[in-house]
Amino acid sequence: MDTQTIDTLKSMEVGGRLTAQNVINEARDPASVLHGHFTWDDTAAADAYRLIEARQLIRRVKLEVIVRDIPLNVVRFIQDPADPGIYRDIGTIRPSEAEVARRIVSEEMMKVVRASRRARNVAAVLGTAADVEQIIRLAQTVVQRAEITDQPGGEA
Fold first, then answer.
1. Is residue 63 domain-shared with residue 80, that is, in the same domain?
2. Which residue, 5, 82, 88, 151, has most beta carbons within 10 Å?
């Protein structure tokens, strides 16, 4: 993000707080450095927002599955790793699609890694004692194992 945008956002803080509505209000002015970060065509913006709502709706659908006598609530639809615009019903992914399953689990674990890194960085800035390094290492290990399993001659 460019420094002008950052400086504008910082200048809008009141007591260290910033609201999305205030950012939109500032960005409405075509002369504002923030203006170009938004879609001002109402039809295009509405369509883009509906896509966000559709993705949220898809992600909210849950499926209860029993694994080793343990009931698990899991998302029913998961993004297809080969085509992120497509969602797959997790219940339809077959054992013969081991590569698809591996890539899905790998991506889920990368989300853990990214979230853990963010938590570590926030904790460092705030000066709190949060030990997330072990979580990051464990998640990275799972991702690496998934990648090794995919290699020819890799271990399962």
1. yes
2. 88
Q: What is the dihedral of CA 153, 99, 111, 75, to 10 degrees?
A: -140
Q: Pull the structure tokens for residue 57.
A: 């709706």
Last residue of a domain, one of 53, 68, 93: 93
Cβ atoms of 28 and 39 closer than 8 Å: no
Say whether pLDDT at 42 is over 70. Answer: yes
Same domain for 152 and 118: yes
Match 């080969």 to its residue by tokens: 82
| Residue 79: strand pairing partners | 87
- 75-to-53, 60, 89 alpha-carbon distances in Å: 16, 7, 9
SS3 80: strand
pTM exceeds 0.85 for this model: no
| Per-residue tokens: 153 | 């001659």
Give me the domain span that covers residue 106.
94-156
